[in-house]
Amino acid sequence: MADRSFLAWPFFEPRHRELADKLERWCAKLSEDNGDVDSQCRTLVAELGSAGFLKLCVADGDRRPDVRSLAIAREALAYRSGLADFAFAMQGLGSGAISLFGTIEQKRQWLPKVASGKAIAAFAMTEPGCGSDAANIQTSAMRDGDDWVLVGEKTLISNGGIADFYLTFARTGEGEGSRGLSAFVVPVDAPGLSVAERIEVIAPHPLARLTYDKVRIPADALIGAPGEGFRIGMETLNLFRVTVGAAALGFARRALDEAIAFASKRRLGTETLADNPVTQAKLADMALLVDSSALLVARAAWQQDIGGTDNRRAAAMAKLHATEAAQRVIDAAVQMHGGAGVTRGVKVEELYREIRALRIYEGASEVQRQIIARDLLKEHAR
Length: 382
Ligand SMILES: Cc1cc2nc3c(=O)[nH]c(=O)nc-3n(C[C@H](O)[C@H](O)[C@H](O)COP(=O)(O)OP(=O)(O)OC[C@H]3O[C@@H](n4cnc5c(N)ncnc54)[C@H](O)[C@@H]3O)c2cc1C
Known about the structure:
Radius of gyration: 21 Å
Bound molecules: flavin-adenine dinucleotide
Structural class: alpha+beta
């Protein structure tokens, strides 16, 4: 069982401890991988919805999602299954712009379906020509009477192929670069929207490239005002950034537990691997990385929930440290397992593949460093 002593830290409240208990009971009943990620994801979304967990992913009226609850959920789910964490997280990221900036009507139309697992959400920002540099989005949206018409391409879109709607960022031209983007809810049945290609990645998840061929959507599909798309996208990413760190933490905790269990049983001459001082030093380093990540994630999530402070630096630190640290912890766990560590079907091999993309998506590590450094320099200049 994962170490849950962090829940006693002052960042958390009794409701967070209750949530962690409920999640642990739910995770214990999760069915095993059947190889078909689409059907597994659909089932996971439906089950997470009927268990009530997806309510955490969406706004409750004007109340934003509680980031500490999201972090606890992602950590617990990632500890058990990368796909369960993915199914949960995408419901939040894909609907985040509606939660944060949608009208009452838009919230009413989409959020109950997302929260019950009846609609699968996706976030469509990346394009073949631009990823980290989101200000450079080329997909266009032109006004035509009462409608908007979208033309372009999006790639590496999680839930691509199974989503019921794609929260899409497109250029509407109110200004140059980041000042000329807008956000739209594009339902899967909008004429002209198609999946051009399914993309396979090292840790299988539904992922696709999408084509927008004169996709016509009504005026009320626009989230916020024209030209606000970049801010909407960045605030959505900022809300969920800490939770990427939480997922990494779940993977790292699992790797540490797997390493301890393996080292305690594996014979090395007359002793076990765990009796060896080199192994013990490695385990200590792994535990240190896990605990430092947990502290940074808890701080950033708490700061975000209490509001009133700009937590961009703390969120970037949490994501950066937790994802990079998890990569090191998992790599150490694979090494400790020897040949078994790189064998398909062994948990640490799966974790080794699961962790990699987290250092790239929702802002690569280099981008997080840039956010932290710019914030430090701005503070220094004041
Ligand atoms: C599994 C997976 C799921 C994804 N899901 C989604 C999704 O649901 N929706 C979506 O819109 N996108 C999604 N993406 C895309 C993801 O957000 C992009 O891959 C990411 O933003 C990086 O963009 P890029 O791949 O175009 O790399 P680039 O932007 O071309 O960057 C390449 C590399 O350059 C370096 N770099 C980038 N910026 C800087 C900088 N400022 N300074 C120094 N170095 C830098 C980094 O090492 C980076 O990895 C997903 C990606 C993956 C792998």
